[in-house]
Amino acid sequence: MTTLADSTIWWLLAGAAVALELVTGTFYLLMLTVGMTAAALAAHLGASVMVQIVVAAVVGGGGVVAWHWKRSQSSRPAQANANRDVQMDIGETVHVQQWNNDATATVKYRGAQWTVELADHDAAPQPGLFKVRKLHGNRLVVGKL
Description:
The chain is of the alpha+beta class. It has 3 helices and 5 strands.
């Protein structure tokens, strides 16, 4: 009976991890795959099984920790109602001619009448150009340019 070489086992494990990653969509499995690949290379270089396991753990675990740290440092995307990738109105300008007493106004925008409200409720509403910052229901929430 033939036995598989250590490197072959690591390559098979790495392939299985890639296949599992394709099914689940988690990037962390790719980092573990990098660790398994490093262990396979260590096996090709003649390292003992214990060294191979340590290499897989250090490289794969280090990749997971590094990726997790990188994701925690990056900014979170805006909520859908304030994300220009989701709402095409974000970042557009509207002209407010007159504000109501409740800090709302009605403007003509994209061929229809829209209700706008100020994003900064402490600011005194004055007529002028405003930038759409987010949508609140069917209202445009605007801020001064």
